[in-house]
Predict the structure of Arogenate dehydratase.
Amino acid sequence: MAPFAIRSHVAPLPSQITVKHSPIDQFPRIDIKSPLISVKRRRNTIVLASLSGENDRAIEADGKNTQAAALQLRDTPYDVVSRDALPKPLSSSQFSSSVSDGSRLRVAYQGVRGAYSESAAEKAYPNCEAVPCEQFDTAFEAVERWLVDRAVLPIENSLGGSIHRNYDLLLRHRLHIVGEVKYAVRHCLLANHGVKVEDLKRVLSHPQALAQCEHTLTSLGLVKEAVDDTAGAAKHVALHKLKDTGAVASSVAGKIYGLNILAEDIQDDCDNVTRFLMLAREPIIPGTDRPFKTSIVFSLEEGPGVLFKALAVFALRQINLTKIESRPLRNQPLRASDDSNNGFPKYFDYLFYVDFEASMADQRAQNALKHLKEFATFLRVLGSYPVDTSMI
Ligand SMILES: O=C(O)C(=O)C[C@]1(C(=O)O)C=C[C@@H](O)C=C1
């Protein structure tokens, strides 16, 4: 099935497009202020694609008609180009920072410029073009619809714990975990110039960031307000020139949005690390040449000792578990698809997400999963990928 359905567009996108012609480059530079429009160069054409709610669209342009095409993309109804006009699938050998045609790897992250997720995306793929997305779901979709090549999304933090939304989305979507990256999160209290700590009544940030600074913010007597991301909080405070409101975000976000740093390292523990997952449409081929980790999700029949039995399949083979997360689904069944039911929905009461220290190329891991399959009611391998052993 083509990722872009042929459909007529019904309403203009609320995006701003500026096209700047360059005297030295055949192609104009295109700035699009919308995380949902992608611009990709492919040899002699530029593919502009958009993903906006129900309206999936893409259009091809060359150097001469790009401006017109960009405006058409923004303003008028038209039909969608075929799948052939969109970027070709990447193979596991392209698990590096650039794609073979020389253009940069496009990596989706949630948030606006200056979010920790953007820095994590750049750490994971050093020369990438980081593409901001409003929500986690948008980032998943952007990969699935070929608008970007990868997504880098937070999964757990050493102080705040798991990011449950992304656990759920891993199961709802069919992306593969191809890597992990750990990022040291150092929060600042930011405010507009001239504003002092005593002037502040409230503080905005991502809920995880607020949780990571709980003690500091409570001791300052500030009312905490959750927003979509830390950098978005900084942007809001700057844009509205707020005098009684600060933001918890990175020093990078402070610089981007022109805010003053009132306090640095305000997280409750200096060891504040967020682990991000690197997601792709294709899995990588697991190796044994370096430390690998495998992430799985499974469900079990109800009964005494079943979870004990499930975890024993790893213990019996000396496989170390690094994370276990359970998601209760009793009152709110999740629509899930697994490897054996051709995408048909199934409903489960509980799901267990487990990360273990072994590659799927390792016989011990294969045997452990074979054993688990004997009594698990559902099992899916989310990915087998190199462990991030970098210094944080
Ligand atoms: O808001 C941001 O800057 C993000 O990148 C999101 C996020 C998260 O979801 O946990 C990432 C890292 C920090 O732990 C705080 C927030």
Q: What stands out?
A: The chain has ten helices and 20 strands. The pocket of prephenic acid is lined by residues 111, 115-117, 154, 157, 163, 185, 206, 208-209, 229-231, 274 (CB under 6 Å).
